Amino acid sequence: MPEAMLRLERLRKKFGALVVTDDLTLDVRPNELHAVIGPNGAGKTTLINQISGLVSPDAGSIVFAGRDITTLPMHTRAGLGVARTFQVSSILPGFSALENVALAVQARSGSSFRVLGRAAAEPALNAPAMAALADVGLAERALTPAGQLSHGEKRALELAIALAMEPKLLLLDEPMAGTGRDETTRLVRMLDRLKGRFAVVLVEHDMTAVFALADRISVLIYGRIIATGAPAEVRADQRVVAAYLGDEME
Amino acid sequence: MPPTLSLATSRAPKSAPTTRRRLEALPVGIFLAFAALPAAAPFAGGEHLLTLGSRVMIFAIAAVALDLLVGYGALISFGHAAFIGLGAYAVGILAAHGIGDALISLPAALAASALYAFLTGIVCLRTKGVYFIMITLAFGQMAFFTASSLAPYGGDDGLTIAARSTFAGFALLKNERAFYYVVFVALLGTYLFCRALVGSRFGRVLRGAKENPVRMAAMGFDVYRFQLATYVIAGMLGGLSGFLLANASEFVSPAYMSWQRSGELIVMVLLGGLGSLNGAIIGSAAFLLTEEWLSGFTEDWKVIFGPVLVLVVLFARGGLIGVIAELRRRFGRA
Fold it and tell me: Buried (b) or exposed (e) across A8-17, using 16+ Cβ within 10 A?
């Protein structure tokens, strides 16, 4: 087995008396798409927040590409190659779609402490940004203010921002939430195409999408992982069916 | 503007829409008006017109700097007058010790403001929103009371400066007209620098942090460092304004850094229109000219000015610059 891209070890997080991450250990392999499923309130988003650095764990460690990142701030982790999307799309609404992505390119290319020269006219930023937009099918919307994009387009834009960061690990927090059937199909096809370029942790309620995309699936219930394995194994796991999949699948 | 189809073929467009390169009529008009004002002086007001013009431009420098913080960074500083005071006191204190040359007092004014901005910024920028307003106010008041207690330098009463700063020995600022143009160049330089900054890589990070700081952190930006650098830049420009103000009035007083003064600067920026830089200049002109005009009628001019301000905030959300844009849309070619 190759060395893990991401390793969570005995991670714990409490909000008051509520244990949201309970002694959680998980490996994500390089270039695998690892889905995390579980009922509402299982602690999936909190898990993503801890990996990306938005929330710090109470105990345990997060090792990314061989480096302990448990105490690093969010922006440093992003610089190392941890990109994420949010459950509620998080974009810069007043910027054009292109500028949203160009900023992500800017973050990893050269100093941003330059006060002269128009950033919006830098081909070195705009060209990779356009490529990322084209990758998610948003090329024609490049100059539209991000705030005016449709819900599905905002989803795609967040993905383009993440791609432009050239991540080693991409954290997707319910990318299909609130999207229509057509959008979901489009997103699944897009993720299927992107998959294999980097490791992905996918939190998602849409089981069709999860079973279509995932290399491995972990099932999270009350902050604990009750099963991890290939989709077929997880589907057959009696504990998983009893605790979660039973009502989700049928 | 409809996106062209060529974009679809993943060719990067030459320019993005948020900032335009073409020469804009408004700032050109503003600076032409300032440049031409001395020519009008012999016919209207004479020396007094020049003094008033200088004063407007001096405050415009501080207001443009404040707009950088408030309008582009969403950092509502309620202590910006402290920097004006620091710059002014650098001139006054050095002059009291016989050092009256700008080659020393100007760098001193800028360095003092930069240091103060850096040290207070480290603390202030850890807070957000209302807390940031309160803590900048608190630091401003600290500077105010420190200045008031500087007994050797006049304390409450302030400090008269014997003569305007010289430039490498030349009494350049002595002539009212020359002084006016020095201030003009300072404002023009401030404006052009801030203009470039806003559209630069740096400025884009600053604007991004105003829109969505979490997204910026998730992209890999340490927003705090950019905000701190902006705070120092804005502070130094405030110090420049203070350097000029001390020379304009040949007097330095703690009142320069009172919280009322900080409030007036915010009013100037709001009145003119946030986040355009042009607005800050127009706002300070409108504020100081209204003050000049109304105070000719009554000592209680603020009783009239207050409601006017309320009306502007209520009905002209974009400030005067919003009104100008609206008028141009209705009556002229855009």
Answer: bbebbbeeee
In this structure, which amino acid lies at residue B152? P
Looking at the structure of chain A, the number of domains it has is 2
Q: What pLDDT score does A247 carry?
A: 61
**Chain A contact set for B226 (CB, 8 A):** 112-113
Whichever domain contains A26, its CATH number is: 3.40.50.300
Tell if the pTM clears 0.80, that is, is over it. Answer: yes
Q: Which residue, A165, A192, A209, sits at the end of a domain?
A: A165
| A19-55 residue pLDDT tens | 999 999 999 999 999 999 988 888 999 999 999 999 9
Q: Is residue A226 part of a domain?
A: yes
- pLDDT tens track for B277-327: 999 999 999 999 999 888 888 888 888 888 888 888 888 878 888 888 888
Contacts of B212 in chain A (CB under 8 A): 90-93
A98 touches B: beta carbon within 8 Å: yes
Confidence at residue B17, expressed as pLDDT on a 0 to 100 scale? 43
For residue A87, being part of any structural domain is answered with: no
Q: Could you give the CA distance from residue B183 to residue B102 in angstroms, rounded to a whole number?
A: 13
Q: Is residue A86 part of a domain?
A: no
Residue A153 domain boundaries: 92-165
Q: What is the structure's pLDDT at B20?
A: 46
CATH code linked to domain B24-36+45-331: 1.10.3470
DSSP A171: E
B195-206 per-position pLDDT tens digit: 999 999 999 999
Residues 112-171 on A with a CB inside 8 Å of B are: 112-123, 126-127, 129-131, 133-134, 139-144, 161, 165
Q: How confident is the model at residue B88 (pLDDT cuts 50, 70, 90)?
A: very high
Which residue intervals of chain A are DSSP H helices?
44-52, 74-80, 97-108, 123-135, 151-164, 181-194, 207-213, 231-236, 238-240, 246-249
A200/A216 same-domain check: yes
Query: Residue B57, SS3?
Result: helix
Provide the mean pLDDT of chain B. Answer: 89
A243 part of a folded domain: yes
Q: What is the CA A119 to chain-centroid distance, rounded?
A: 27
| 3-class DSSP state of B261 | helix
Domain C-terminal end among A114, A147, A165: A165
Tell me, yes or no, whether A5 and A72 share the same domain: yes
User: Does A161 lie in the same domain as A60?
Assistant: no
